Amino acid sequence: MRDMEAEKKVLLIFIQADSGVDGASLLDSASAKRGLLSVLKDSAMSNIIRRAQFAIPPLSLMILSSRNVPGVSQSICDLRFEKLPLHEHWDLAGISVQTGAVKPAFELAGFLRSRGIKVVLGGPYVTVFPDRCREHGDALVIGEADDIWEEVQRDLLAGQLKPVYRVDTYPDLAIDRPVSKSALDISSYFTTNVVQTTRGCPYSCDFCNVHVMNGHRLRHRTTASVLKEVETSLKQDKRIFFFLDDTVNANELYAEKLFTELIPYNIQWVGQATTALGEKPKLLEAFARSGCGALLIGIESLADGSNHAHQKFHNPAARQSACIRNIRDAGICVYGSFIYGLDGDTLDMPARLEEFIEETGVDVPGINLLRPIPGTAVFDRLAAEGRLIPDPDDHDAFRFSWAQEMLYVPKSVPLKQFIPSYTAMTGRVFTVPNAMKRAMKAPRLRSAVLMFNLLYVHMYSMARKDLHRQLSILD
Ligand code: B12
Ligand code: SF4
């Protein structure tokens, strides 16, 4: 794994967030009055959630560690599963800063610097808020670092690290950049087969910052390069593949070619797509035949008015139900991702959502609260309208969580009515009998569908406790 002759050693670090799916536990566990059993149960569940649900490696750091410069060796430390290897000497630590986990990232940077290790910060938060990161690192990388990372390593060797590396043009994904798993501990993960075929998103949903970070123009890799990566990956790890693209069907011609070519590889895969897939029989067939087991579909609201209020226009309400049914009929499980609380939503939405989930048979429902992420258009708008509950300047208050707190005031429903309407809905949707029913009806991957639904019974019940606490403070 490591070149013993290397002159400089780089440690690439992925942070464990102290909330959200990485550390799913009560947000305010310190002040909650709880018995020992309940604390033990939460910590055991938190561990299971971290290990079972989303235990996939950070592709960003795999990409960086695959850019080799002679004289530099690189290792990955994923703090969700490993401890910092501080018994070894490191010349440079590269930390991936996610917007929902800024505080632990900056604390770690400070700690490493206090031990004389130089720190370079990169990732979504650095790209969107470089000025807030400057004082926390010796160097910043702003933007997609696929190519510029070699320059950083060369400068490290020369002892001339620059304070800022700015990527002015998005990397051309048509250039082949093989991704290696050699810096990973493969056994830590549910699977290490993570592949991204495209970057950028042509849409502009205001709660999302993918188009802010990666641009509106969809860039894609060659299908030959993706197939080669799948083939190489299979030699090390035969488990399921995750296509991490935000919208794997965004360019339908490309997706049809890619997944048709993938059929002979006999893999199983999961990914994220839009409802539009349900209206494209040929593409759907290519997905199913290439081993697609499940897709996360961002449905958000069942009302056009609500989706449009957030600049989401590509998911017309009248066609959602038929699309979901077509996808499931093709043998693909649907993880339906909804948001309750969009501008335009009213108190009748929970009943409509429940009916939709029943009628379409969504295998794993995820009913999120709108999370205003700093750097998104909705964050700026809610701040301008005075509707954000925490101070907009305090980005740590907008850390990851699992539907556990309201961070803004809904447009047309008072908070005191909104929170109970949400918690009552999740109490009805996420029950053990419903989990079993969904698993039995799932077109494939029944045990995974059961596991997700059961985890959600726990996670939404935890979220309800946090929300009820927030409600009691409002009184
Ligand atoms: C895969 C994924 C996940 C996986 C993460 C698994 C993993 N270990 O990586 C899972 C499913 C767990 C997940 C969960 C969540 N996610 Co997510 N996820 C993604 C997704 C689809 C892909 C991430 C990825 O691998 N991208 C590909 C890599 C190559 O891009 P990258 O990470 O940006 O890295 C590049 C640069 O940023 C930079 N870089 C990155 N790190 C570093 C470090 C250094 C040192 C340097 C120099 C450069 C650098 O260089 C890289 C190469 O170009 C993104 C969307 C996206 N397009 O990025 C959302 C995204 C990151 N997720 C998001 C969200 C909101 C969440 C959740 C909160 C959702 C929820 N409701 O629970 C949770 C929170 C997780 C938690 N910690 O609790 C948001 C984050 C917004 C933000 N700015 O923080 C995104 C952007 C999606 C969105 N719609 O806005 N997610
Ligand atoms: S939510 Fe999905 S479709 Fe909308 S802008 Fe973000 S990545 Fe694109």
Description of the molecule:
The protein is an alpha/beta fold and about 475 residues long. It folds into two domains: about 10-165, Response regulator (Rossmann fold); about 190-475, Alpha-Beta Horseshoe (pyruvate-formate lyase- activating enzyme). The protein contains 17 helices and 14 strands. A six-stranded parallel beta sheet has the order 2-1-3-4-5-6, sandwiched between helices. Strands 7-10-11-12-13-14 form a six-stranded parallel beta sheet. Strands 8-9 form a two-stranded antiparallel sheet. Helix 9 (about 250-260) links the parallel strand 10 and strand 11 (about 270-275). Helix 8 (about 225-235) packs parallel to helix 9 and helix 16 packs antiparallel against helix 17. The radius of gyration is 22 Å and the shape is globular. The N and C termini lie far apart (about 55 Å). The relative contact order is 0.10. The model has no long low-confidence stretch (mean pLDDT about 95). The protein binds cobalamin and iron/sulfur cluster. The site of cobalamin has 38 residues, from helix 2, strand 3, strand 4, helix 4 and helix 7.
